[in-house]
Design a protein that fits this description.
- The protein is α+β, with helices and mostly antiparallel strands.
- It has two domains: about 5-85, Glutaredoxin (3-Layer(aba) Sandwich), CATH 3.40.30.10; about 95-210, Glutathione S-transferase Yfyf (Class Pi), Chain A, domain 2, CATH 1.20.1050.10.
- About 55% of the residues lie in helices and about 5% in strands.
- The protein has helices at about 10-25, 45, 65-75, 95-125, 135-155, 165-170, 175-180, 195-205, 205-210, and strands at about 5, 30, 55-60, 60-65.
- A four-stranded mixed β-sheet has the order 2-1-3-4, covered by helices on one side.
- Helix 1 packs parallel to helix 3 (about 65-75).
- The longest helix has about 35 residues, at about 95-125.
- The two termini are about 15 Å apart.
- This is glutathione transferase.
């Protein structure tokens, strides 16, 4: 039974999962909710995703939600398919601790600010609301304040969890691309943060991201 990815084709978190499915070459079928009927808030949807959010997967009856958890599951279950996205030795305590550290860095230092800017300048607009200038300034300041840390980290290693690509690097893609679309050069300014720009150029130019960045294909 092919894995079912339940999400809107343009969902940021849905595309976060889809890029890893493409990178790992895992077949899937996209199941889109009906926006007109708010299907993702229906009782049927809430049985599988109790918060009424996207995405969730159905992998032969195994239901899992939260995009980062789904990505780790895919990278682990399909470790031998496509691009390796785990440390080479998953029994290495230190390597796995560094991986967990990288996960925490993204959720603590990138997502709150990049996600906050997306909420204020993109998602609110989609809902007919205006951005709050105070919140925009807060998140902009937050992004600027974290970039030196990312630069120091990436001056010592190629990727977020070391010198090998892992699934954590893919966590950044939807909101990172959103920052660019909003006109921010946080990840692309090579004169200020050359290692951040080098890393971002590499991950954002991957074929898997190009396949999903403008909308998740119906299947793979």
């Amino acid at each position: 039974m092919v894995l079912k990815l339940n999400t809107a084709a343009m969902s940021t978190c849905g595309r976060r999962v889809a890029v890893v499915l493409h990178e790992k070459k895992v077949p899937y079928e996209l199941i889109e909710p009906n926006w007109a009927t708010m299907e993702h808030k229906s009782e049927n949807w809430l049985k599988n995703q109790p918060f009424g959010q996207m995405p969730y997967i159905d992998d032969d009856g195994f239901i899992l939600f939260e995009s980062r958890a789904i990505i780790r599951y895919i990278a682990t279950k399909y470790a031998s398919s496509g691009t390796p996205l785990l440390p080479s030795d998953t029994s290495d305590l230190k390597a796995m601790a560094i991986l967990d550290q990288a996960i925490s860095i993204e959720t603590s230092n990138f997502d709150p600010n990049a996600g906050g800017l997306m909420k204020e300048k993109v998602f609110k607009k989609m809902g007919g609301q205006e951005a709050d200038p105070a919140f925009v300034a807060k998140y902009e300041e937050g992004m600027v304040g974290k970039l030196d840390g990312f630069e120091k980290l990436l001056s010592k290693q190629k990727y977020m969890a070391g010198d090998s690509l892992t699934f954590v690097d893919f966590y950044y893609l939807p909101y990172g691309a959103g920052l660019e679309q909003m006109g921010y050069d946080y990840l692309t300014n090579g004169s200020k943060h050359p290692n951040v720009a080098r890393w971002w150029k590499e991950i954002s130019s991957r074929d898997a991201w190009n396949a999903v960045k403008n909308g998740i294909p119906a299947s793979l």
